[in-house]
Structures are given as C-alpha cells and as structure tokens.
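Final report, Chapter 2: Outcomes

The project's central promise was a pipeline that accepts a single protein chain and returns its three-dimensional structure in a standardized token representation, suitable for archiving and comparison. That pipeline is now operational. To close this chapter, we reproduce one record exactly as it appears in the project archive, with the input sequence first and the structure output second.
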Amino acid sequence: MDTMVNTILEIIAIILLALLIGLFFLGLSRKITARMHWRYGPPITQPVIDIIKYFNQTSTSHGYLFSFGLILSLSGCIVLLLFLPFGHWCPLSSSGGLLVVLYLMLVSPLGLALSGGEAANPNASIGISRKFLLAMGYEIPLLLIVVGVMSYYDTISIVEIVDKQLQTGCSFQHLPLLLSGLAYVLILPAITGMRPFEMIQAPQEIASGPMAEYSGKFLAFTTIQHALNLFIGISLFTNLFLGGASNPGYFFLKTLVVLIVMLIVNAVFPRFRVEQAIRYLWKWSSALALIGLIIVAIT
C-alpha cells in the first residue's frame, strides 16, 4: 500500500514539476530572445498569466473531435513524462523503454491533427500538414539516434542508459556516440518547435496555424501542451547524451543550459521554409545519425 501511495505521489510531483519548468522555460525563452533583439520583453511569468487569463475567457468548441484531439495531445505528453527519468524519479521505468517513448512522441501531433481537422480552418490545415512533415523529417534521424544509443549500451531501458552514464561518463565522452549526439543537437529545435523550425505556427503566414481556431480554455491547454513538449524534448536529450542526473535539481540545471544554447540559435537564425527544413533534417541530421549508428555497430 505504501509503495502505491509513493508511486502516485511521485507521478503527481513529476507532472507538476515538469509543467512548472516547462512554463518557466517558455517565459525565459521570450525574455532572453527579447533581450537579444534589444527589447525588454514580457515577464518570465507571462505564460502563467496567459493560462489564467485564457481559463477566464469564453471557449468555443467545433465538435467532439476538436476537444478530444487536444485532450489526446496533452495526455500523450503527460504519459510520456512518466517514462523519462527526472533525476532518480521514473514511475514507469519497468513498463517500457525507448521504443515506447518513440511511439508516444507521435501522439501529440496526431491529437493536434484531429483537433485542427475538425475546425476546418485552412490555416489550421496548413499548420497541421507542416507539423506532420516536420515530424516525418526528425523522426527518421531520431530513430537512427535511438537505435545507436540502444546498441551501444545494449539495452532499450532509458533508466539503464542513464545509470551506465552515471558510472562511465555521459555519452558525449564516448567517441562512438559523438556523431549521434551531434545529430540530436541538430534536430532538437525541430522536436521542440523552435526556430529555425517555427513554420508550424508562423503567425505572419498562417495566423498561428493549428491554434487559429482555439480560444479560452483550449488556448490554455495548448500552452500547457507546448510547455510539456519543450521540457520533454530537452529532457530526452539530457538523459540520452548528458548522463541524466542523480537528483531533480541537477537535472533541471542541465536542461536549463541546453535551453539557453537553443535560445541563442532561436534568436539568431531565421525560420526555415518547409522544404528547407525537410532537406536539412534528412541531409545533415540523418547522415550524421546513420554514420554514428555504423560506427557503433562496428566498434
């Protein structure tokens, strides 16, 4: 009984901490980007203020799938969190491995597609098609990267991968995994939806794409989903290549450093066109990931 209670408390703690960290990352990204552009920028707490404001506004649903798709997308992020080690916390460590993580990463785009498709807005449809194209672009190198990491450590368990790194050093210190790690660095902005891969929303082109028909609580849930997705993308990289962490505080510091590096790229580079993004992901990221997998296989 005590074990079950501890597991439930651990699940609740991970979800709340991931949400708070994700919202903090969203606010920090706006602030740092604004300062790099010689602007003052909004307060770091702006995402929290936005969520409170959205929940107090009128919401309009376009049908059952419109609401269900957004709930599915958010649920996929929450379940995925429970498979990723957060310091020494990982409630579902014995329920699956990296292959389950790859499957769950597809739930979020699928949910947004169901929701946006029900809205029948042309801008939303364009944004959804871009989302699937981008997902197709980064899923191929991501699969090669994950296979390389699993082959090197001879396990599909992300918890065991983190434990081995804590004993022998992070993956970047092992030469066979260096190219795989660099490939992940190249696709990380695409996974999190940051520039130069910001074409899914692109307010100047398609009026925020999938979010064009959202209002009230739907915008609030979208902001929460975006915050969790940002935290998940950085956390997966931290666990696979930076050795994870022995405690949540140290894990947070590592993810914060990764975010700041990403924000420098976000503030400097312009947005890719769709064909440029796919060409970049398949040409450079996939090539590095494939070469890294070959090196792991022959060593």
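Archive annotation: The CA atoms of residues 197 and 276 lie 10 Å apart.
This record, like all others produced under the grant, will remain available to the consortium after the project formally closes.
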